[in-house]
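Researcher: Checking consistency across runs. Here is DUF3857 and transglutaminase domain-containing protein again:
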Amino acid sequence: MKNRFKILLSVLFCSVCMFPAFAQQDYSIAKINPALLEGADAVIRFSETQWEILSKAEARSKVRIAVTILNERGEEKYNSFQVGYDKFTKITDISGNLYDASGKSVKKLRANEIADFGQGDGADDITDSRMKSADFGRKSYPYPYTVEFSYETRDRNMMFYPRWMPASNPKASVELSRFVIKAPAGFVFRYKEYNGAPKVVITKNVDNADLYEWQMAQQPVEKKDDMYPLPLTDRIPMVIAAPAEFEIQDYKGNFNSWEDLSRFYYTLNAGRDKLPPATIAEIDKLVKDAKTDHEKIRLVYKWMQARSRYVSIQLGIGGWQTIDALTVAGKGYGDCKALTNFTIAALKQAGIPAYAALIRSGREASMMEDFPSSQFNHVIACALAGKDTLWLECTSQKVQPNFMGTFTGGRSALLVMPQGGRLVRTPDYKAAQNTRTSRVRVNLEQTGTGQIETQVLYTGLQQELRSAVLHGINKEEQKKWLMQQINLPSMDLLRFELSESMAGEPEVTEKLSMNVRNCATKTGTRLFVKPSLMARSFELPADTDRATDFYLPHSAYNFTDVDTIAYTIPADYALETSLPAFKIESTFGLYEMKSSLLNNQLVCWRKVVINGGRYPSKDFAAWVDFLKKIRKADRAQVVFVEKKT
């Protein structure tokens, strides 16, 4: 399903759209309003999507975009285009043109310059989807220049209607963008405007068809970068459209409610959960001694992970109809739909009720819960153990049961049930669950050089990156990555070890041995020692003014760090300053530091708790103040002076 959704998002939901039948326009840069050039990498001169609904089963789209590219960053984004197609979508026309700064035509795309290739990424992709792609070459033309692309498609998958996002790129201004839906008179479909998108204008054309039009013009880029932008779905003007009723092949459905969407998906995949006798016997043997439903779920999940692997398979009805469990049992592979269906079938054989759940995966991914429509790109399993719910990511051979992480955690999922499902919430990960607990021992020399031994335990969302490093790259690459993460001057990484605990909640332990020159600063007879050595640092925003809400992403800002660092101070040095102690409390979290000195052992303890989420603009000054206080506390130093002899 994942690759299918990538294609649909790039083709049908694209906000930068083209249309080949328009008259030639003047693309001279001199015609651009100077306000649209300020801070922009590109100017969208003209963008239009026309979606013509022919029936419940078929539509035609005409799309066109013209973009003036101002620099290399704009070229990276807009110099090329891709159009996906499959047995449900046929490309009937495609073209491209390039114009110089004066608007003069320089080049037209020839048919042999438009590549056509399968969507599979390699051996682990099986798909009937294809892609047409074209570009004019990078750094081949002097800036500014304008590219114009257009195409037309015929669509027989009416589960998906276009989404219009005219200003989705913060560094591209918009001269004119239009979204037009044409429907037979009285034809019912659904749409909704978000985040200040213009209201629809409804008219009739000469053949009595209904025309729905949205338009945006003269939209400059934001004047300054936003360190804490709201999620895209909360800040970008957009229009979402979806069918009321639709037909695809021999299936009929409607998306008027989440229950309806769930019922359609269930019907599409009903009867595909039969298991072969040998697999049934294997499952019965696996769980016969299990004492609880929780134990059964964990046994079945680990068994499934050990005997199957993920392969992206995008065949059938829009990539939505799963490969049956018999085939997965025999082949040992499947996509997210197939592996989830197979796991649910195995759980049911073990006496555990379980359901597929449609979800939008990806870091900080979100959906419009008030607009039932196909906004999903992934399927996971939901198993019930009495009153408890265990979520299972069936495409991973490593993930622990009930750990969703940044990929699918903390968001709505649609349960697929025979009588229609409902939106439910996957596990959230609060600051107390996403921990980094470090113990650092530093043997400090008189020169300021330190021999450092660290052991750090990562849990929750904080362990994800290191788990990926542990499983994804070799030891040499791991060392290079770790050295990039350690913010210490003149550091030699002597030894390191990454290990993972597979019992209970996922954990990764990191052990490091280092030699660090200038670990403490030596000035004359004094040593300046930093209690917050190796602690996480915080960047301050350049501007403290804020007119809109700001967002601290849960994936990055919901955490608890606890650092304990023990310095062995050279015996011939004595404490000259007081020992630092801080406690800073805020709506956004907590900061504490304590320190003690016994004999020549300086022990510093530091705790930081940050609570992510969306905050009103009036709280921004308080957030900046909180960061400033943390940074000031982290700059505290303990000074030792050489003892007089």
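Researcher: Does this match what you'd expect to see?
Model: One thing to look at in this run: The radius of gyration is 29 Å.
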